[in-house]
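QA checklist item 7 of 12: single-chain prediction sanity check.
[x] sequence parsed
[x] length recorded as 294
[x] structure emitted
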Amino acid sequence: MIMQYTKKLYQVPTDHFKFKIGKTLFDFKRSPAVMAILNCTPDSFYDGGRWLKRRSLIYRIHQIKKEGADIIDIGAESTRPGSRPVSVKEEIKRLMPAYELCRKIAPDIPISIDTWKSQTAKYMLKEGADIINDISGLSFDKKMLSVLEKYKPAVILMHTPGKPSVMQKMTNYKNLILDIQTFLKKAIEEASCCGINRIIIDPGIGFGKTVEQNYEILKNIKKFNILKRPVLIGLSRKSLIGKILNIEPEKRLAPTMALNLQALLSGVSIIRVHDVLVGRWTVILYHYLKRGAK
């Protein structure tokens, strides 16, 4: 009954893979996108602390633009396993310098805000952010949905079984793929009921999953296409690579590219990366493989 009522209130698009974000019209079925990671944190697992000073931040944004990012995802709170949340005030304080510089240096690139907090989302949407990337899939902050309903940004709904401080203790699933599908399906329905139609989904590599479970997700990534939304994958330099190859984050670029290429060939629409140029090369190779060598 809820869905029937909602369809009378909101126009439901016929193509969930083609929509405008900011100034850009994305067609995710035809052309996968590269999302650049811009961490404004002192403690992220790979680049924490690198972009906190204004000069280094300006350099990073110019680099992201030059290397061909389609979206910039700004995060101000580390969500690595075991991390603790920061206050809304501190999160916004970290976000705003990066956001303002992105708008100045790369005005045509859509900006995503990586936050699960409704107050942070509201503040940044008022500022003009294009996407809210909620790692909790609307499950941590019950006020998030009402904020999204008001501003109707594009949203990324990710699966996680719990907050970063405890999520690695919550890796017992009845059926890993089905459980994630069910979680994301519920989140999609909740967002759709509020008139939010530009939805991207993320199975949450590294969030409440063992190494083996992360690879099970990658091997079954095609199964998330049943949800009929663009799929984002975020595995850049993560521990699922390091624990198999016994290498530190600084040495995980090549395997990141290999896994991202496999994910694209399996139907993933967005790769979220630290290394934008290599991400762009990966998409180019994907297109070449899809059309076939001549």
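[x] summary fact logged: The chain has one domain: 2-7+33-285.
[ ] second reviewer sign-off
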